[in-house]
């Protein structure tokens, strides 16, 4: 039986490892240039969320290349978001450390703010799930992918909250990013798959002594990572400020993309991460992509409308709400009535509960055959991160595909790409499950049973994507 270890195997110095570590040091030396890049991105971000609100909505004949609103929509939802998610898996949270406008603004605000201690409620572990769920659902209610007003409301509102958090708490820190950002939880789990991380050699750290006459230079870690004990790169923004710290005890390094999930994630149960993966990424997020294409929703609407008419409540069928609560663009022929809104919410909740229940049962069965413990249940949940990440990427990139296809680009290859991504991520999830089972199950039979137990979790999620991309 394999053992649960928390540090990646040491590599011999020199070669690729030395070159990777040198990249970390190089990033540290170029902090000024990176800070300039951050401000350029803040400016681009501000233009993209503010200017479209001041312009008329695009006409039928407008395109991404001749209409600012469509261009901003394409950049935000078609390129920016999907590829930020991909970057998490490839290089960890480099986006957060080097490019995120909210990170830049909240850190600067905290340098000049009240510098208060972080209240307990801010540190509550449920925020990553709650904030992600609320923004995902609200985004669907107001059609954030389609209209500039909701974009300003949601992204601009989040940025304003990040600045306020910076002005309130911490000193030169990113309290917002660490505890409250709505995508922090998603980034945290996806970054576990990255083959790059800042590795900490604890022995070297402890053995380090300042050279005679040397002056201790503390590290500025904006997202408040306890660097000495850092075993996962979930919270690390890859800013490189600690590169080479304490005589090289901290280094940018390569590792297996499976390491964090197999060898670190089981050390401590993280129930809120499980909730985020099972009911957030595999539940609410999938439901949010599915509802608008679902014929079940159409049938539910017809049945509900019939019921209301039968009971003399047909007036309710005409009730609409302001655009900042529920989509309301009569000129675009795009209005959600109160009934639509209730059905939309119902669909997302029911999907999240049903798929979440199937996935939870799978995880419980895998943990049971491996020798039940709550910790093992949460550890198996981590194996589903590749599938969860691939789904969110494909859901977001569906808009990219639609926009490109509308503008005449050939997208015939997309089905093969989707099959490869969904199939590959499900196999990766099962491989992680197999490796995790190997830590706990004493024999191959139990390990195989644990693997088989995870199949329904993958199958139900793949089934949902199959309905969206190939049936509906
Ligand atoms: S641990 Fe902190 S200082 Fe080091 S790279 Fe990560 S975010 Fe930067």
Keywords:
2 domains, single chain, two-stranded antiparallel ribbon, 19 helices, disordered N terminus, binds iron/sulfur cluster, globular, 4 strands, 472 residues, mainly alpha, 64% helix
Write up this protein:
This protein is an all-alpha fold and 472 residues long. It has 2 domains: 177 residues, no CATH class; 209 residues, no CATH class. Helices cover 64% and strands 3% of the residues. It is built from 19 helices and 4 strands. The strands form 2 sheets. It has a two-stranded antiparallel ribbon. It has a two-stranded antiparallel sheet with strand order 3-4. A hairpin with a 4-residue loop joins strand 3 and strand 4. Helix 17 packs antiparallel against helix 18 and helix 18 packs antiparallel against helix 19. The longest helix has 32 residues. The chain starts with 14 loop residues before the first helix and ends with a helix. 42% of the residues are buried. Iron/sulfur cluster (SF4) binds next to loops. Iron/sulfur cluster binds next to loops.
Map the helices and strands.
Layout: H1 15-29, H2 31-54, H3 68-91, H4 94-99, H5 101-112, H6 127-141, H7 148-168, H8 175-180, H9 184-191, E1 196-200, H10 202-207, H11 245-248, E2 250-254, H12 259-264, H13 271-290, H14 295-310, E3 328-329, E4 334-335, H15 338-369, H16 374-382, H17 385-406, H18 414-440, H19 444-471
The protein binds iron/sulfur cluster (SF4).
């Amino acid at each position: 039986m394999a053992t649960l270890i928390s540090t990646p195997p040491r590599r011999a110095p020199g070669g690729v490892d030395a070159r990777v570590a040198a990249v970390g040091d190089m990033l540290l030396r170029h902090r000024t240039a990176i800070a300039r890049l951050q401000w350029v991105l803040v400016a681009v971000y501000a233009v993209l969320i503010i200017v479209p609100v001041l312009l008329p909505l695009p006409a039928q004949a407008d395109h991404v290349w001749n209409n600012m609103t469509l261009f901003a929509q394409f950049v935000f939802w078609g390129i920016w978001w999907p590829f930020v998610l991909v970057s998490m898996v490839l290089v960890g949270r480099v986006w957060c450390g080097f490019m995120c406008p909210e990170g830049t603004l909240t850190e600067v605000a905290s340098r000049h703010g009240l510098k208060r201690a972080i209240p307990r409620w801010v540190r509550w572990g449920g925020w990553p799930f709650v904030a992600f769920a609320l923004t995902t659902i609200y985004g669907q209610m107001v059609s954030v992918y389609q209209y500039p007003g909701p974009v300003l409301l949601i992204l601009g509102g989040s940025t304003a909250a990040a600045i306020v958090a910076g002005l309130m708490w911490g000193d030169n820190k990113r309290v917002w990013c660490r505890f409250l950002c709505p995508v922090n939880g998603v980034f945290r789990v996806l970054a576990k798959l990255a083959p790059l991380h800042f590795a900490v050699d604890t022995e070297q750290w402890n053995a380090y002594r300042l050279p005679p006459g040397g002056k201790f230079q503390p590290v500025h870690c904006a997202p408040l990572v306890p660097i000495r004990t850092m075993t996962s790169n979930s919270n690390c923004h890859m800013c490189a400020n600690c590169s080479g710290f304490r005589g090289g005890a901290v280094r940018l390094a390569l590792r297996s993309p499976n390491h964090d999930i197999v060898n670190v994630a089981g050390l401590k149960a993280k129930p809120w991460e499980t909730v985020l993966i099972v009911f957030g990424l595999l539940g609410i997020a999938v439901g949010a992509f599915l509802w608008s294409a679902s014929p079940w929703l159409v049938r539910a609407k017809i049945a509900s409308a019939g019921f209301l008419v039968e009971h003399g409540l047909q007036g309710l069928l005409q009730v609409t709400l302001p655009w900042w609560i529920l989509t309301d663009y009569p000129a675009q022929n795009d209005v959600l009535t109160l009934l639509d809104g209730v059905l939309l919410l119902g669909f997302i909740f029911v999907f999240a509960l049903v798929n979440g229940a199937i996935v939870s049962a799978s995880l419980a069965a895998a943990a049971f055959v491996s020798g039940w413990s709550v910790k093992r249940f949460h550890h198996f949940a981590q194996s589903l991160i590749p599938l969860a990440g691939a789904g969110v990427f494909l859901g977001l990139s569906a808009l990219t595909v639609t926009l490109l296809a509308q503008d005449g680009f050939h997208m015939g290859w997309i089905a093969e790409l989707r099959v490869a991504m969904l199939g590959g991520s499900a196999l990766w999830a099962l491989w992680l499950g197999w490796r995790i089972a190997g830590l706990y199950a004493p024999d191959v039979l139990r390990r195989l049973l644990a693997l088989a137990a995870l199949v329904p979790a993958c199958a139900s999620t793949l089934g949902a994507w199959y309905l969206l991309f190939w049936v509906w």
